[in-house]
Amino acid sequence: MPLQLRPVQSRTAPPTSYENALADELEAVYGRGVHDLAGVVAALNAGGLRPADGADWTEETFTAELARLSAGEA
Questions:
Q1: Least C-beta-crowded within 10 Å: which of 4, 24, 45, 60?
Q2: Model confidence pLDDT, tens digit, residues 12-43
Q3: What is an example of a Pfam family matching this protein (predicted)?
């Protein structure tokens, strides 16, 4: 039996526009070769996408946001 990867098979709803924007921004950051947490946070702050409170990203707010977004995806 062939295996198939379906990365969103457990989603209960389509991604929001915010989730799509964050995913696009992260894809661009990783595509530029930035892979360390501090570099990703700095790149997000250099872009226009902000967390819900409008403040700059920090390592803590970024990791908390990823945890929040993935909480229902198990």
A1: 4
A2: 788 899 999 999 999 999 999 999 999 999 99
A3: HTH_62
